[in-house]
Each structure stands twice: as C-alpha cells, then as structure tokens.
Amino acid sequence: MSAPTLGNVLVTGGAGFIGSALSQRLAVRASRWVVLDNLHPQVHPTAVRPASLHESAELVVGDVTDPAAWSALLADFRPDVVVHLAAETGTAQSLHYATRHAEVNVVGTTTMLDAFGSMNHVPRQFVLSGSRAVYGEGSWKKSSGELFSPGQRTHAQLQEAHWDFPDAVPLPSQALTTWPSPTSVYGATKLAQEHILTAWTGSHDSALTVLRFQNVYGPGQSLTNPYTGIVSLFSQLAMRGESIPVYEDGLITRDFVYIDDVADSLATVLVTGPTGDGPSTFDVGSGIGTTILELASLIADFHGAPQPHITGAFRDGDVRHASTDIGRTLENLDWAPQWSVERGISALQSWIAEQQNS
Ligand SMILES: NC(=O)c1ccc[n+]([C@@H]2O[C@H](COP(=O)([O-])OP(=O)(O)OC[C@H]3O[C@@H](n4cnc5c(N)ncnc54)[C@H](O)[C@@H]3O)[C@@H](O)[C@H]2O)c1
C-alpha cells in the first residue's frame, strides 16, 4: 500500500468492533494516529486493549464526555482528521437508558467540538459513523402510490399481530429521499450527532462525511454483549444445536453488511473523499434486504441445526423493515460491497468457532 497520506488521525471509540477493523486499514495511512476510547465495560468486559486493534494505534483510555480527557489529549496531539465512532449503541437498551445514550452520543460530540474550539484547532475532515436507525420505519408506499412515513407500530397493533402497516409496502431508505424519523432514542441521538457536526463543520470550513451504516456483522463483533447483534446470538444458538426462535412472523427485514465492507467504506472516505456535489451523507449496506427467517435458516443450515421456529413474540420499538438503496453511494464513493450475506455468515461462523476453541 502507499505511503502515509492522512496526517494525524483521531478515532474516537476506535477500540470497538468497527474501529478495530478500520485500524488495519489506517495503520499504513496515518502519520500518527490515536484512539480515544473508554473501554466501555459492556463492550470490553476485561477492560484490556483488544488484540484486534492494530499495534500502531496509540490508545488513550478516556471518555468523550470528559472535558479533562480532551484537554490532556489535545495538549499533545492535533488531529487533521477525526473519525467519530464512540457511542452508546444499544438500540433497545436506549429506551431505558436514554440519558446515558444522550450523554455519550450527543454531549460527547459537543464536548469534543468544544475542546477543539477552546484549543483553536479545526480538523480538516470529520467522518461520522451514522446509523440506519435515523430512518425509523422509513418511507412506505400505499397502493394508491402515495408515500408516507408511518411512524411507529403501536403495542396494540403488535399484540394483534398486525406486523405491517395496512395497504402499504416499505421502500428502501436513501439519504437524499427518506425523511429521517427515528423510532428509538439511540436513533434520535445518532441523528443529533449528524446535525451537530453539520452545523459545526459548516461554520468552521471543515469537511464532514456521514456514513449511515446498516446492520454490521462479522468477525470481531461482540459475542458477549447481549444488546447488539442478533447474528452473533443466532450463531451461538445454532452451534449448540438449538432451534433459533424468530420474532413476529419471521419477515422483519434488515440489510446485513459485512465488517470489511464497512471498514473499507470508512477508509475510502478518508483516502479519496466523496466525489461529485451534494450532501455528504451516504448509506452503507449490502443493498440487499434479508428477512430474519432467511438469516436464521442460513445459520441453522450452516451448523446442521434444527430449522428456526417462528414465535410470534415481538419487541416494542422494533422497526419492521430496514433495507437501503446504495445506488447513490456507489456513484459517489470509490467503494462497493464485496461480501454476500452467505459468504459473510460463513466467515463469521468460522471465526466464532475459532474463538470458542481458543
Ligand atoms: N455495529 C453496527 O451494526 C452499527 C450500525 C450503525 C452504526 N454504528 C455506529 O458505528 C459506531 C461504532 O460501532 P461499533 O459497532 O464499533 O460499536 P462498539 O460498541 O463495538 O464500539 C464502540 C466503541 O466506543 C467506545 N465508547 C463507548 N462509549 C464511549 C465513551 N463515552 N467514550 C469513549 N469511548 C466510548 C467503546 O468502548 C467501544 O470501543 C457507533 O457510532 C455506532 O453508532 C454501528
């Protein structure tokens, strides 16, 4: 690969799942790079530096909400580029820990910006890990052709097993055409991050790219954090030879995007930036919607486990269908997903087996 080109790079939350994958790509491209991460106990139960974080990263253990941590860091290090990954990430959990999500995701972002302001330092580029959670249920289309944002499914609706919105079909989300309408506190805080960074960078002659990730999975994802990632949960059930329970009627849809594709999208934006005009907010997914039943069957088949079973159970606040149209991303970024869900799931199973045998 080519010589370093990026200057000083700061990655907040860079010791996590996505940050560790990105670290393999950053190692050869940054002059110096620092990870600011508090080694959150839910993500890092042993509170030690993850082996998957490339050795070239200088890890500073600190909290993005702590002004003193920022002062100490910036006294010694002025980043040219900031990749802002640090976040509380539990979508369902955010309903019960709303303040914690707001503090880290919203106030953590403003604390970072205030620290740059007080040091009179403006990084030339920010990249934010946005989320598909900002769309909530996204846009749906009635049989009359009318588009609408359906809001959130009610508890009563779910109890009656009315899983979909009547007389309508969901449309894949796309940053320029789908009105953000988060149905989780997490999603609301991720949208707030976008707005805050847009306002700040716009006033400071700094570039911002927002990558809205779909459901990221793959080697390196947490096998212990119960609040993130059904792929890991399903995999562990199937490995034990159990039938995977699937909520609702099995037809909840998600776009599962492989970790390498996500890390590559970040590296692409850092190295070449977006091309063309227009807002620098892009959807990053596989571009293919997969039902949860399809996912569970794929994993069950891989392990020769019994077929999944539909439970009809539900979780309040779960989005029914989430898929994305990545056409505009493909046009504007020198990037395209390389991993099919079949290949990615298979690679993940091998990695999980290795972890359990080591
Ligand atoms: N994984 C996904 O499916 C997904 C999808 C969409 C968006 N995202 C976004 O991508 C980013 C990274 O997600 P991930 O999957 O790597 O999550 P992760 O939980 O594996 O990593 C997050 C990292 O942030 C750190 N962190 C948490 N709170 C912090 C704080 N207060 N101060 C400093 N560090 C803190 C954690 O210790 C962890 O290392 C997040 O912003 C998340 O919202 C992830």
Concise synopsis of the structure shown:
The chain is α/β, with parallel strands linked by helices and 358 residues long. 34% of the residues lie in helices and 16% in strands.
Describe this structure in words.
The chain is α/β, with parallel strands linked by helices. It has a domain at 8-218 and 258-285 and 327-337: 3-Layer(aba) Sandwich (Rossmann fold), CATH 3.40.50. 34% of the residues lie in helices and 16% in strands. It has 10 helices and 16 strands. It has helices at 17-26, 67-76, 98-118, 155-159, 185-203, 230-239, 259-271, 292-303, 327-332, 341-357; strands at residues 8-12, 32-37, 58-61, 81-84, 125-131, 140-142, 147-148, 168-170, 207-213, 215-217, 245-246, 253-254, 256-258, 281-284, 290-291, 309-310. Strands 3-2-1-4-5-9-14 form a 7-stranded parallel β-sheet, sandwiched between helices. Strands 7-6-8 form a 3-stranded antiparallel β-sheet, with no helix packed on it. Helix 1 packs across helix 7 (259-271) and helix 6 (230-239) packs parallel to helix 8. The model has no long low-confidence stretch (mean pLDDT 93). Bound molecules: nicotinamide-adenine-dinucleotide (NAD). Residues 13, 15-19, 37-40, 43-44, 63-65, 85-89, 104, 108, 129, 131, 190, 213, 215-216 line the site of nicotinamide-adenine-dinucleotide (NAD).
